[in-house]
Amino acid sequence: MKRYCLFILVLFITATARAQVNVDSLRRVINSKQPYQEKITASIKILENFETKNFDTTIIEGNKALALARKNTDSIAVAKIKRHIGVASYFQGKYDIAAKNYYESVAILEKANEKKELAPLYNELGKLYRKTRDLDKAMQNYEKAAALFKQLNDSAGVSMILNESGVVYEYKADYKEALNRYTASLNLAEARGDSLSVSYAVSNIAGIFVIEKKYTEAEKNLLRALNIRQLLKDSFAIALTYSDLGVAMNGKGDYIKATSYLQMSNKLAETLQYVELQSNNYSELASVAQRKGQYQEAYEYYLKRSYLRDSLYAMEKTKQIAELNTKYESAKKEQQIKEQHNRIRMQNFLFIGIGGLALLTGLLINSQYRRNKLRQEAQMKTELMKQQEMAVKAVIEAEENERQRIAKDLHDGVGQMMSAAKMNLSAFESEVQFANDEQKKSLKKVIQLVDESCKEVRTVSHIMMPNALLKNNLAAAIHDFVNKLNNKTLQAHVNTIGLDERMDSNIETVLYRVMQECVHNAIKHAGATTLDISLIRDKDGISGTVEDNGKGFDAADKDNFEGIGLKNITTRIEYLKGTVDFDTAPGRGTVVAFHVPFS
């Protein structure tokens, strides 16, 4: 059901964004000598236009509007603007910033008893807490919003809250209550003749029926939603409904209809450039094909889904695909080698037979055979080297992808949970009555610790997937990495020459990881207190040295090179067809020197 809820949220965004706004004319009003009220009205209309289209623009325009409202001491306008900034921050995943703006807006509107503005604001807070899985607080805010909408006799608002709060009960697996709320929302929408809201409600109801495996009822409701959306000519919503029908028909076992609906959805999704919907449809098409016993077709759909959403797959899925590919390539290569050996064996028999007939002819053929054999061996060696390079490349790319996955998990998972914890603590701080200042100071220390933890998580994720390397050159990325080190325990100096221009991203990434590994070894194993890093680019290639004053090691002892750290450095440099040397001895530090030529 998470998928249905996501679609409903997107549909709501689409519906609210349909009204076309002439932004240029609104900006002319803001920059003119018109009265303040006309200017602030135009500013808020701009925010409404960009709120679900361009989050950065919403925040930029929102800050301009805040300056105008504060200059004219218009607290109600400030509250409205902060709600829009909060919504944009929510869609950016900055939940703590969204919460800050929401609560500042709530404080103003509650004091002014602005019920019409408070009701949608409580709804936004409900969605925020639902996103962070604090379902009890989500329901508290939905109930506040529903009470205000009822006081305002706003049937559309009550209907919306019934739909939104129904999702909470889906998360709690209380499908009966979720269905009750969706049905109540449907009744209200039908009573006021709101066909768009009717389509939302029946789609939600269909989702419950799919969970309960009542596929006939689900199909009936989805076809009703489809008819409404076709009349409204809403291609986006039609694509989603086709996808939902495909899921329902797959569950029902009507694979012909399932395939047809999913393909129609993908056709629209491709036009709309909605990659996530295409990916979900390919996954469902693979399921249909597998149930039909068409395993090759299922595999092809799975590959298409992988192409669209590879970065979102779990590592176990990636490993499965990599293992299948490795087995296939290995089997193929073994067959080629076997065929080559068979050909060589046949040639040997042929040469021996010819040698028995005529010595001279045999010598000539033997000479030709040797040349062929040497050429084949050279080809085999060349092919083997290519395979080894491909294997090393695959390992490095897999390691880099895993670093990026972990970094994203830290940032989007742990980081957001820590942000949610900070948000809840901040909300608690504003609500609780402290017995004394010591209690308040203790809570502030806890909030500060959570904030520091958030920053630490972000720092670790940025080191694993450095934004500096994505946005700037290798020199900037290395400087950024070194600047994040604890300079109290390690004094690091960096010198870079000729790296202002960008290089191939693969080369930059490999060299960046080599530098990281060298610094890591100096800190963890060598116990160094100073570190000198040099990276120079000239016409021949790139040369680098990393020198520390640590305890060093015996370079003649091969066991020292069996560790993962030194292996990683050597493997990565060899992958770039470069050379690396380690100049060290116990008690006199270590110098790692490498050179990577330009191919």
Could you name the key traits of this structure?
alpha+beta, Serine Threonine Protein Phosphatase 5, Tetratricopeptide repeat, Heat Shock Protein 90, 23 helices, 75% helix, extended
Write the layout of secondary structure elements.
Layout: H1 2-16, H2 23-30, H3 36-50, H4 55-71, H5 75-91, H6 95-112, H7 115-131, H8 135-151, H9 155-171, H10 175-191, H11 195-211, H12 215-231, H13 235-252, H14 255-272, H15 275-291, H16 295-309, H17 315-357, H18 359-431, H19 437-464, H20 467-471, H21 474-483, E1 491-497, H22 505-524, E2 530-537, E3 541-548, H23 564-575, E4 579-584, E5 590-597
Parallel strand pairs: 1-2
Antiparallel strand pairs: 2-3, 3-5, 4-5
Describe this entry's structure for a reader.
By secondary structure, the protein is an alpha+beta fold. Helix content is 75%, strand content 6%. The chain is built from 23 helices and five strands. Helix 4 runs antiparallel to helix 5 (75-91), helix 15 packs antiparallel against helix 16 and helix 17 packs antiparallel against helix 18.
